[in-house]
Amino acid sequence: MSRIEVLPGLCSRIYSRHCLHHEDRIWVEKNCYSDLWIELLHSLDLEPLALFSFVHAVDFEGDQWTFFKPPLEVLRCLYGIDVQELTVWRPLIEHAVEHLGNGKLISTEADAYWLPDTSGTDYRHTHTKTTIVLANVDVQNQWLGYFHNTGYFELSGDDFRKLFRLDAGPDTEFLPLFAELVRIDRLVKQPKIKLAEHSLQLLRLHFGRRPLKNPFVGFSLRLAEDLPKLQIRGLPYYHAWAFASIRQVGAAFELASANLRWLASCGQPGLEAPARSFDIISATSKALILKGARAVNAKRALESADMLKQLAQAWDEGMGMLEQYLNQPTLQPPR
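and the corresponding structure tokens:
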């Protein structure tokens, strides 16, 4: 049998997404790396809501917000998953056969041009770097089952050959794709309350790494500076800018809110209030990204002062309440 299945039983036609990717979310897609971890953990019967205590540390970096990625030590602490860089010294498909055959998964950079789940955006239209997880493969029949964005998908035929660069000649040189080995042989499925206890400990750690000053102040100044350039270069440039900036911070704080509400459901009353502040950041960011697109397209002024003030205020209030909560001398482990 030529098919190698690390996660047997998956089928893209009937795959059910985690609630973090349901259509009622403000940001259905967060970013490619965090999204695939949500669904991979979900498929392993693990709870992704415990993961996102680290997003409180996101900051405005100047030309973008932090592209938030689950720290590898957090994946190990919460779920027993070990992730190490894969040295891609031979064709990626050979690594896939070797390591998937040994029960490991591979996270790898990929060209969204060959990923049919991006139909309507990048598929067969735009060469865009993204990240996928190789879960199941059949080289003989040129078929791949993979995690990407909001779910589990399958591809075959020409997409398979192009994705793995099989049509290139033997002397063709490529820059190797960055890839990681994902070992799940020591998977830990903790009881909900124990998992929440560890998530709370990680929240305290990553909250200590939050920005030293309100990042929306710097973002507001940079937005005013960048807007004329965005209007000159038009919507394609704006969309790239918005993905690296507003979308990242909006999605991050939607996940921050979800994590706090999950902890509250595990016996930590008092976290709903900062979660509401982070909801404001998420929703206002979504409104701002749409309003910005209209202003850029029409080349008119962007009336964003009230939104930017609301974002900064919500960050101050949410972080202030969370700091007060975490500094309680009687803070108890989740029950």
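(Above: one complete record from the training split.) The mean pLDDT is 95.
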